[in-house]
């Protein structure tokens, strides 16, 4: 499990776990530090994917099924141990969905809450018609990267660092752009689903996520563009929101 998970602060007495999936090209540290901020009732597990951080020498995954297989193989005891929720931004939202779908179908396990950020539902027309970015030339890719914001200027200005960063980002985008799934014929979850997004980001079909659950469904819009969640003020709002919902759902589970 240590290969897959970054956990800054172990909390054996936590009521629930928050399992976080990175955005395209992202690592685990942004989420892992949430464990230092959230109270003792919530333990944070941040997922590390191959090709970055301590897994830098591993080959990037080529499709969503590889990610799902590894997560289920290594974390199934975790999913069974105590209440858990999933949080994913952009690429991470699709990973959260794919993992939740497989957990329900294969093991009849579901989270107590799913938080999906910055992404249209994978089966929505908005997402299906979105332009492919992973095949762009490096120059065009960088122009697009700058346009969506969220990437530190010093990284964009450093060619050596950029060459380390771009392959992971393109690999993850390749995975998500080739991930195909059909709209559920009926909701497969009963847990609450919360969608979060930046008001200035390109429009996402958040409403379509409602098709995955019979449970409560909420949409929360915050100031900012695609990486709105990096803003310290927004981060506080998100963590307060997560805490409120997880503490309640964890108690209900018990």
Automatic annotation (TrEMBL):
Alphabetized SUPFAM superfamilies for the sequence: alpha/beta-Hydrolases (SSF53474)
One MF annotation (Gene Ontology) recorded for this entry: fatty acyl-[ACP] hydrolase activity
Single biological process term from Gene Ontology: medium-chain fatty acid biosynthetic process
The keyword Signal is annotated on this UniProt entry: no
Organism domain of life: Eukaryota
Pfam families in the record: Thioesterase (PF00975)
InterPro entries (UniProt xref): AB_hydrolase_fold, TEII, Thioesterase
Top-tier EC class: hydrolase
Residue stretches making up the Thioesterase domain: 17-235
Protein name, as recorded: S-acyl fatty acid synthase thioesterase, medium chain
Source species: Hippocampus comes (Tiger tail seahorse)
